[in-house]
Amino acid sequence: MEGNKGNMMRRLLAGLTLPAALLAQSAHADENLFGYVAGAETLPKGSGELYQWVTSRDDKGQGTYHAINTKTELEYGVTDRFSTSASLKMQSIDTHGLIIDGYLPKAEKYGLRPSGVELGMKYNFLKPALDPIGLATYFSVNYDWLDPHSGQDKDTLSMELKLLAQKYFMEGRLIWVGNLGMESTYADRAEIDNLPAGFDWPTDPEMEIEFKTGTGLSYRFVDNWYIGAETVYETEFETEVGQERWSVFLGPTLHYASKKWWATLTWFKQVKGGGEMYAGQQDHDLHLVEKTEQEVRLKLGYNF
Amino acid sequence: MNRDWQPLWLVPAVALVAPAAHGTQYLTTTQAQKLLFADASRFAEHPLTLTDAQKDAIRKLSGVRQRQDSQPVWSAMKDGERLGWFIVDDVVGKHEYITYAAALSPQGEVIGVEILNYRETHGGEVRQADWRANFAGKSLQDTLRLGRDIPNISGATLSCRNLTDGVRRLLALQQVALRDA
Question: What ipTM, to 2 d.p.?
């Protein structure tokens, strides 16, 4: 009976997630040791995983800025090397006391509301515990209707492609991962009434391209518990302004895993940044137009 | 689209609150001894403390580091004759240590392997007889590598690799520390 139920659930999940394969997607397969960088392993054929991400983004140096982004994701192992996933994203924001020309037009405050969807897939070329180094590629299509920076209405369609490397050391107690990725985005902002005089809020569609690279190291210090550190460099180019921004985030990661579920907590601090700055920005060593001074991310995963 | 769905993200979070899985002991040492040496009438404890030189020799022979200074070893006996060695060992799993037992013949061949404890998310197949049977008859003359003469189990590659390396290490341990015992 249990077996029949399990088979039915797997077929249902396959039905839900296989269309994702046709479009391609962006979820991080298997147990996540890190909050922001991803490993190269994939789920075994016929198994599934439910993920819940919560990311808190805080502080642009002036005024108040606090946003929460969530992602609820289902992933399914189509083969031992290929998995697909589908996600629903949500967002809340509370910003006031800071206006950034072209980016942050007014105070905004709302609770969690749906902000986008994501379809993804991951293919593993080399297995980290079997081959000299693990290697996978990850592809996703995202459609978002809320701007993550201002919280305003903004339709974006983006495609992301990543190369994920992973290596085990010390019989698997020490794990290194390295990521290289590119994201192309088509964005179209909605018009806003009653903008400040002379405020630049372009509503013509624009194209952006982002390059990112990151690395992380995690060590199992006792059974089930890992401690690590990770860092990500991102830079974005836009049609009108060229290099719009770059930033380096760095922070510690704590991970707990048991047989069926796991949790990962990362504090991610912007340590260096550049590109566009807002008028009156005090800290010239950070990019605070689209990024915040820090993020905290909690991920939960459940295997079935 | 503008309605706030404040409590919605909590739903999957609540679904994730599952009781922590505790390790399952599938076999006790005594049960594993009887399975691997059904004909034995007695298991004589053979305490083994390894010197640094012996640990180096094990690493050189097997290519795997011998972490522990001491190893639980029994001599399986019948009518005063040694049937082989019964060794209990731990290897690193993805989340916790995997405890297993290996039965080795006096000539240095694997008689069998039994899994005593396995707590990982995937790869419960390591307990199945057909996977463990791949070790039978293997010696240090064989490759004894995951993905070559020992098949991989998807989702449990690290556990399978460490178990395979562990058995190879125990064969080296027997040659270094038990050959003349």
Answer: 0.79
